[in-house]
Amino acid sequence: MSVGLIESGRSVGGRLATRRVGDGGLADHGAQFFTVRGETLQKHVEKWLALDLVYIWGTGWSDGSVKRTAGDGHPRYATRGGMNKLAKHLAGGLDIMLDRRILSLRQTADGWTLEDSEGDMHEGAGLILTPPMPETLALLARSGVDLHAEDLADLRRIRFGPCLCGIHEIDGEVELPEPGAVQNFQSDIYWVADNEAKGISQMTIVTSHANAKFSRQNWDASEEDIVRELESAVLPYLCAGAKIAHTQLKKWRHSVPLTTHPHECLLARDLPPLVFAGDAFGGRGRVEGAFMSGIAAGKTMVDALKL
Ligand SMILES: Cc1cc2nc3c(=O)[nH]c(=O)nc-3n(C[C@H](O)[C@H](O)[C@H](O)COP(=O)(O)OP(=O)(O)OC[C@H]3O[C@@H](n4cnc5c(N)ncnc54)[C@H](O)[C@@H]3O)c2cc1C
Known about the structure:
Blueprint: E1 5-6, E2 18-21, E3 25-28, H1 39-50, E4 54-60, E5 71-79, H2 84-91, E6 96-97, E7 102-108, E8 111-116, E9 121-124, E10 127-129, H3 133-143, H4 149-156, E11 159-171, E12 181-183, E13 189-194, H5 195-198, E14 205-210, H6 212-218, H7 223-234, E15 243-259, E16 266-267, E17 274-276, H8 286-306
Parallel strand pairs: 1-6, 10-17
Antiparallel strand pairs: 2-3, 4-5, 7-8, 8-9, 11-14, 11-15, 12-13, 13-14, 16-17
Bound molecules: flavin-adenine dinucleotide (FAD).
């Protein structure tokens, strides 16, 4: 089958996001690592390990207390050069139209027609939509697509949490517990990680993430106030004489699904083939959930087009 891929970003990756900072600095500011529970992803990971594309960053995190590192033995995988490199690897050899946002879609006698932000139209017999669900629902509503009431109800149950993220350039050194991160779900700012200790950055760049509740409550606060809060979680880990030189704020409106759909994807009823997919499907959430959902969406679309 001939497949067209359309992405609104200037490069691929979505929430597998890595940002360049200064000269030689890199920071993962979306997904920090991924875990593997199922055989399918494990098989791919074995290949990626052999290619030295991914590596085991650690087997658990300290919560920042005196108990320095709390390993549970499960590998947390990171990608050489930053998490975005995994998306770039997966996208290798694919023909992807970048920097084009799908603005609307229309049901036709033969399938679907999409209009993108450049004013170009794209036609296809089937359509797979993978943006975070609130964005997909907004696109459908804008386009006047009438989903079956049960599908709409199922999709509306999916909820995403926001995440306020700090990318902190450090003048000096930081000391975070081995292997370079603290994860404490009791704290508003539950994640602090050193991208240098992680092995992706030549400069000391720290990433901080606030939880969904704190991020929601502080979403509209001034940038200065948010940055101050995020920096306060980093300060305890600065070595003597070090200081935070600069903080960039990244606001993820839809960071991780808080409620998910039980199936790995959803084929819309009573419409030309239309499949919803992404990390909110399959109950896993996260990178593995997105990966598995993508595979399921492909199979579901092939079956739907064969009918
Ligand atoms: C702050 C943060 C921390 C995280 N930490 C972890 C972690 O440690 N471990 C883990 O496993 N997971 C983590 N995640 C979650 C993980 O990143 C996601 O589960 C996964 O990357 C989602 O992949 P996806 O393909 O479903 O969605 P996305 O990566 O969001 O991909 C959707 C794509 O659709 C594009 N798009 C959206 N709308 C349109 C449109 N109208 N037209 C064209 N293109 C469009 C977007 O640009 C994007 O590239 C984290 C996420 C965030 C934000």
